Amino acid sequence: MKPAIFAILAVLPLCAQVKFNKSPEQIDIQIDGKPFSTFYIGGEAPKPFLAPLRSADGVVVTRRFPMEKVEGETRDHPHHRGMWFTHGDVNKIDYWMNELNAKDKGIHGLVKLEKVQQAKDGRKSGTIKASFIWETDKKAPLLRETRTMTFYSDPKLRIIDFDSTLTALEKATFGDTKEGFFAIRLRDEMREAKGTGKMTNAEGKTTMKQVWGSASPWVDYSGTLEGKKIGVAIFDNPLSFRHPTYWHARDYGLFAANAFGLHDFLRDKTKDGSYTLEKGKSIRFFYRVVIHPGDTMEADIAKLYDAWVKSTKK
Predict the structure, then answer these.
(1) Is residue 101 situated within a structural domain?
(2) What is the domain-level CATH number for residue 57?
(3) Would you say residue 186 lies in a domain?
């Protein structure tokens, strides 16, 4: 082998496969030489979010609206932005349905960037670390969110680890409401209603009728996009607050884990899923998102979940 060729080959394994391009209002994410998503951290949006999410072969799996207007795409729920993390009731303040053009008369808060501590490229994975302040309607700081998102290089999968700790800057009560919490809005073609999608949870229950409001370690939402079988799974780690989480997963494409909405999910007004976080105290939420080819069985989601949990045990 010629020395020049050997030198090139020797360098290739060291090249970053997960790369970030940071600007003041966003961080573009590239995996294995292809665009994956953009992390929006500024501008007019009232919360940080990732959009769009793509499969390993480049298929967009999340709805474009409201960031873009695509002909024929649904335009309901403008607060559904790609992948996001907020709640509908913290001290009676709505961080979930908090778009600047919200027409209701509720009290809305904002989630604002405090600082990006790290956007580190990597050969096998890359990590973004950032902190955010959940502000009240009076612009007073209520919560500090410390978030770490890790993105992985893989020939078939797109994987995001989402690890967030919420710390109360003032006493904060998370109200019992289905409107939250860690969420993805999928493309219309993947809906169960009027689409090709089907939900499956860790207990083998399927469709919204059985999955919505149930507690489960994971749910997979799979269907067909652009002629390809594809799925998006959300995993809830045992290290998360109130594991296993409940699911606010709808047949119109909303896909969310929510540990607080018990009276809605259980259809029992005597249940109370609210939780009060005293000043200085914290709770942690640890999720994994897997975008995969095939349906739930073909992707062996149960095996992927077990392997992840094993790798995170302390």
Answers:
(1) yes
(2) 2.70.98
(3) yes
d(CA 220, CA 160): 15
* Secondary structure class of 7 (helix, strand, coil): helix
Residues in the chain: 314
**Residue showing tokens 């391009």:** 21
CA–CA distance, 61 with 158 (Å, rounded to integer): 11
Domain carrying residue 25: 16-67+77-312
CB within 8 Å of 269: residues ≥ 6 apart:
263
Read off the pLDDT of residues 98-154 as tens digits, 9 standing for 90 and up.
886 556 668 999 999 999 999 999 999 999 999 999 999 999 999 999 999 999 999
CA nearest to 187, candidates 223, 237, 157, 143: 223
Q: The dihedral of CA 259, 161, 186, 86: what is its sign? A: positive
Number of domains into which the chain is organized: 1
